[in-house]
Amino acid sequence: MGEAGATVTVDVEVNGQRHRCDVPARMLLVHLLRDRLGLTGTHVGCDTTQCGACTVELDGIAVKSCTVLAAQASGHAVRTIEDVAGAGTMLDNVQQAFRDKHALQCGFCTPGMVMAVRQLLRDNPSPTEDEVRHGLDGNLCRCTGYQNIVAAALQAARGGKTEATGVSR
């Protein structure tokens, strides 16, 4: 990878904005996002790809940003949780489902869970409960017991319709 202390120039699109900066060659994408760009919705939980709190989209694919070097993201597009709802105040379908189903407690894992559910639903728009549980296998939550997170993913898969009323949100 080069000498310790070596720097590289990273040119990356993050949430629709281009950023060009010099960073240590070994800097992880999660640290570029948090420390250089101030996007602190992407959380650092383990730095070992175990917890999923750092999940972002890289060219539309969910990745754990603690296992991607910032230099590897150069020339690519990154989307963080800050951009999921967009510039407006409306939550996206997955975020709304998390709210409706009370799928969070402390909130630490929530950004990564939302990003993981978005990928799960892109890969499988109509998952079963077991498929949701399997799809979230790489994301840890220490508070919720996962039941409400699974319920939120299933609601989002149904297009945001609540079980009780069938009304779209």
TrEMBL record:
Protein's name in the database: Carbon-monoxide dehydrogenase small subunit
Stored InterPro entries: 2Fe-2S-bd, 2Fe-2S-bd_dom_sf, 2Fe-2S_ferredoxin-like_sf, 2Fe-2S_ferredoxin-type, Beta-grasp_dom_sf, Diverse_Oxidoreductases
Gene: coxS
Keyword Transferase: no
Domain 2Fe-2S ferredoxin-type: 8-84
Gene3D superfamilies, A to Z: 3.10.20.30, [2Fe-2S]-binding domain (1.10.150.120)
PANTHER family: OXIDOREDUCTASE WITH IRON-SULFUR SUBUNIT
Listed GO MF terms: 2 iron, 2 sulfur cluster binding; metal ion binding; oxidoreductase activity
Pathway assigned to this chain's UniProt record: Alkaloid degradation; nicotine degradation
Keyword terms of this UniProt record: 2Fe-2S, Iron, Iron-sulfur, Metal-binding, Oxidoreductase
Coiled-coil boundaries: none
